[in-house]
Design a protein that fits this description.
single chain, alpha/beta, 7-stranded mixed sheet, 38% helix
Length: 988
């Protein structure tokens, strides 16, 4: 069962046809398979002159070439080859697939072959990487984006399960084996895979129609979790050591990180099929390797002397030199490669103290054990890298999980104090919860069996070949029991009911597949068993989802744990009370150990965080102390209220005796010629105050004249409506009687009382004066109008009239209602309170609503019959302070309209004619309407609880982000540092 020869046979077959110049197209999966099974010279010998990827869109069209495609039947590859067939770049296509093709896939290919360029479609079952004759890998290295496990350590990821089934089927078909299947009972994943493989074999029965063997081949499926120790150990054989410290990826080793490496050695090929020295010594220990390499170098030196010019003395010598020179040059390159490789291994062993680490590891991995103080000393040794400390503590925890819980807790705390991060230290718990003693079905360390202790003592008496190779993988014990017929069916059951004594029969062909990856140490065990003379012809083949070193294994566990329940990061139930909590999934912050790692980056982030916290907290405190104003709109539910109107208006061309103030509202209430709380101030033609005069009435000497007339005087009302006394003793009484009668008071010279009081002379005296009217009036909170108009108003037959004769009289002093509004506002009753008025002014100032729309408004005209109308929308406003005080006020908006009463209409420049009514009275009219909306401005301030919560959120958020940045920078810096110093020995 040589998988290398099996795959080489397939590759040779597919490149042999056709016998012409050809191109070989591969995909991401088959490229490493071909590179492991065939060399460039082998491909050239079969006229393969170009090798490329099928998904490369930059390929040139070569219609004279044939094309051989070797692809995995995955969706990506089928899509790529279908696109290729729709626009073929080559003359003919020969399609070979590495696994079984479904009927639907074949139909898709047929539909895509519109130009009929496909000449052959075959299945060559090389769907795995042949690393050694007895070792294969599916190259499924688990990552976060390409997981192996599902939501628990005992479940599959669906994609990984399908890939594993395909890989195992390909191995069986390439070796022509139809096996019986056994699996590890404790592993649900092993049972699931066994069932899937069995069902696939049954569904593809025609492919598995092989000649039955005397003893059926055996496929045994194991789980890596039953032996987590082997992939954690430092390796000391050549191939395993290179993979552990530098990494072997599909037969290639990257040496770019090696100091002073020559360019041609930056990447080397390391396979047993192309390298005779590696073939002979890939299983040798590191100590034996040095001796073998020395002999190899000496052999090369001796051949170098034989190839020197001094030895060429004849034609036959020259002929011999030409024939042997290519082989000699190849030998020189191989010697340089192994010298560089072994030299780098030696350097890494010295630098990382691997001899000390390896000795402790071997003690922990075998029955001999290791002293706690020895492990403690290694963890506190600054010369040992943190990665090696972590591996040793994990091994210690796996071995003494049940017996030395307090020591395990102490070692984890030591890790945290000696350069190991919390995330890495948490992997100790993860390994214990995933692959600890409760999850393993076998006694991995042989610490419980009395017989095992006897074997250990006997081994100690015999001695060991090498102190660094004491450990035997658990697979060795499993195979020993299997070959001797002692492998218990209770622990490793058959998938189907076995025949009589089937478990006791010695199988001739054994295929072992390890879920979670195998190791080169286990491959060495299988290779040595295959070489044993007393093996009675039994052939063993080992495979796995991948081939691990310690870094890739721990990285697989780390990536898988992120999808597991959070409890996987918690200490196991039997852990000591001093075990630190490292559950990173809970988002907690451990303030005990992690902060002990002091870095400059951490100090810088701490200072930045403190400044940010201080700045944000200060802003939050200022916001907490700031008084904000929230505005809301509600329906005004007040009833029966009155408004106060405060006004101050100047009419420069209307005397005070002509100016009348009236109020009319929609309720029918009328206030005519209001004088209460109203003051009229006479103004000169220049606008100055008339000194000593504060009223516009013409009765300043009426009282003196009344005294001269005597108490029995009773003046006539001249036909007007008499007052209750029946007498009109003054000119003003006659004027009022006329007004009540509805007559115009146009000629005061015919009235005795007016002549005695000198009414006409005083009218002439005030004819050129103006008037300023100011004060407060009370109005109902309904729709209404305030009239500032000439003459007294009177009512006749329910109609309102005004005495305009004095205003319109042509006395050489024309009057008009040009005016300036100094102040016009609506007041609530609360604003009569000086304290509330002050608060109202302050609130209006904060809300930027201090002024009133009409304040400072100037209206001008030179016509007597001219009307000014203002339409005001009054909105109630309420201010609420923090101390629960409520102040009512009012705002208003205004629109302005003017009308010339002497004109019936006018035409604008666009030809639009507007008709105006001529009915009206000159004056200034303030029409107000009450809005049903109440605007409420409330002072608010954040609560102390909100301030406290926000402060905590700031502190917690900044610290969390800072901790995240610090951990990223710390891990990145350490990774680069280790990459530069350790080469391949780094924590992934």
């Amino acid at each position: 069962m040589d998988v290398v020869k099996a795959v080489e046979t397939y590759i040779t077959k597919l490149v042999s046809t056709p016998s012409a110049m050809k191109v070989l197209l591969l995909d991401a999966h088959t490229t490493p398979i071909v590179s492991l099974a065939a060399t460039q010279s082998t491909l050239l010998s079969h006229q393969v002159y170009l090798t490329d990827r099928v998904d490369n869109p930059q390929r040139n069209r070569m219609p004279h070439m044939k094309c051989v495609c070797f692809l995995q039947p995955s969706e990506e590859s089928i899509q790529a080859v279908s696109s290729e067939l729709r626009e073929p770049k080559y003359a003919d296509y020969y399609l070979y697939f590495s696994n079984v093709l479904s009927k639907s896939t074949i139909e898709r290919l047929a539909e895509a072959d519109e130009f009929e360029v496909v000449r052959e479609v075959q299945e060559y079952f090389a769907d795995y990487a042949p690393l050694l004759p007895s070792l294969f890998s599916l190259n499924h290295i688990p990552t976060e984006n390409r997981p192996l496990y599902g939501s628990s350590p005992n479940t599959w990821d669906d994609v990984a399960l399908g890939r594993s089934v395909q890989g195992i089927i390909a191995v069986l078909l390439s070796l022509r084996k139809k096996p019986v299947i056994r699996y590890e009972k404790m592993s649900g994943m092993a049972k699931k895979l066994a069932n899937e493989v069995h069902q696939r074999i049954q569904s593809e029965s025609t492919l598995f129609d092989f000649r039955p063997a005397v003893v059926s081949p055996l496929l045994i499926i194991l789980d890596r979790r039953n032996d987590p120790v082997t992939p954690l150990l430092t390796q000391w054989t050549y191939q395993a050591m290179v993979h552990e410290l530098l990494g072997i990826h599909n037969g290639r080793v990257n040496l770019t990180m090696v100091p002073d490496i020559r360019p041609e050695l930056s990447e080397i090929t390391l396979t047993t099929s192309t390298d005779p020295f590696f073939q002979a010594h890939h299983l040798a220990t590191f100590g034996d390797l040095g001796t073998s390499l020395k002999n190899y170098v000496q052999s090369y030196q001796s051949r170098s002397l034989a190839q020197s010019p001094s030895t060429i003395n004849s034609i036959s010598d020259m002929k011999r030199f030409v024939e042997e020179y290519p082989e000699f040059k190849k030998l020189g390159g191989n010697v340089s490669k192994h010298v560089a490789l072994v030299g780098e291994l030696s350097r890494l062993v010295d630098r990382d103290r691997l001899l000390d680490v390896g000795e402790i590891e071997q003690g922990l991995a075998t029955s001999s054990g290791c002293d706690f103080k020895t492990v403690q000393a290694l963890v506190t040794n600054n010369a040992v890298p943190a990665w090696n400390k972590l591996r040793v503590v994990i091994l210690y925890a796996l071995r003494y999980q049940k017996s030395q819980t307090s020591n395990i807790a102490s070692l984890i705390n030591l890790l945290l104090a000696n350069g190991v991060s919390r995330e890495e230290a948490g992997l100790v718990y993860v390994l214990l919860n995933i692959a600890g003693s409760d999850q393993r079905q076998d006694d991995l360390f042989s610490t419980e069996s009395l017989l095992a202790k006897g074997k250990s003592a006997l081994k100690g008496l015999k001695g060991v070949e090498n102190v660094y190779t004491q450990h035997n993988p658990h697979l060795s014990q499993t195979l020993e029991n299997l070959l001797k017929g002692r492998l218990k069916e209770s622990s490793y059951p058959f998938l189907e009911t076995s025949g009589a004594n089937l478990g006791l029969q010695r199988p001739q062909d054994i295929i072992i597949f390890i879920i979670g990856g195998t190791t080169y140490e286990e491959a060495r065990t299988v290779a040595l068993l295959n070489q044993e003379a007393n093996n009675a012809g039994t052939q063993i083949l080992l495979g796995g989802t991948c081939v691990h070193n310690s870094s890739s294994y721990v990285e697989m566990i780390r990536a898988a744990a992120k999808n597991f329940p959070p409890s996987v990061y918690e200490p196991p139930p039997e852990s000591a009370s001093n075990a630190p909590s490292l559950n990173l999934n809970l988002g907690g912050v451990n303030t005990t150990e992690d902060v002990k790692v002091k870095t400059r980056t951490g100090a810088f982030l701490t200072l930045i965080s403190a400044c940010i916290i201080l700045a944000f907290t200060t802003m939050e405190y200022l916001d907490y102390r700031r008084v904000a104003v929230d505005t809301s709109i509600v329906v005004d539910r007040s009833r029966g209220q009155k408004l106060s109107v405060k006004l101050n208006v100047t009419f420069p061309h209307v005397p005070c005796y002509l100016l009348s103030l009236d109020v009319v509202d929609i309720s029918g209430e009328q206030q005519r010629d209001i004088s209460h709380n109203i003051m009229k101030k006479r103004l000169t033609k220049a606008g100055a105050d008339v000194l000593g005069i504060r009223t516009g009435e013409l009765g300043s000497e009426v009282d003196k004249i009344a005294q001269q007339r005597g108490p029995n005087y009773c003046g006539s009302c001249y036909g007007g409506i008499e007052p209750p006394t029946g007498c009109c003793n003054s000119c003003e009484d006659v004027r009022q009687a006329y007004s009540n009668k509805g007559w115009s008071f146009g000629n005061p010279d015919d009235i005795e009382q007016c002549v005695q009081e000198g009414w006409s002379e005083k009218l002439k005296e005030q004819a050129e004066e103006g008037c300023n009217i100011s004060g407060r009036i009370r109005v109902n909170k309904v729709v209404g109008s305030i009239h500032l108009s000439p003459g007294r108003s009177y009512q006749t037959n329910s109609r309102q009239f005004r005495d305009l004769v004095p205003y319109l009289k042509n006395d050489g002093n024309p009057h008009d209602f040009s005016h300036m509004v100094h102040e016009f506002l609506f007041m609530a009753d609360d604003e009569y309170n000086p304290r509330k008025a002050t608060i109202s002014k302050e609130m209006k100032k904060r809300m930027n609503i201090v002024g009133n729309p009409l304040d400072g408004h100037v209206a001008k005209t030179n016509k007597q019959q001219y009307m000014f109308q203002y339409f005001l929308k009054v909105v109630s406003t309420q201010f609420r302070t923090l101390d629960d005080k409520t102040i009512n006020s009012h705002q208003y908006s205004v629109t302005h309209f003017e009308r010339d009463l002497s004109e019936g209409g006018n035409e604008d420049n666009q030809g639009v004619y507007t008709q105006h009514g001529t009915v009206g009275v000159p004056g200034a009219y303030f029409n107000f309407e009450i809005s049903p909306i109440l605007i409420v401005h409330s002072e608010t301030r954040q609560s102390f609880a909100h301030f406290l919560t926000s402060t905590c959120a700031i502190v917690g958020g900044v610290l969390t982000v800072a901790a995240l940045l610090d951990s990223i920078l710390f891990a990145t810096g350490r990774k680069f540092k280790k990459s530069g110093v350790n080469g391949g020995a780094k924590l992934m």
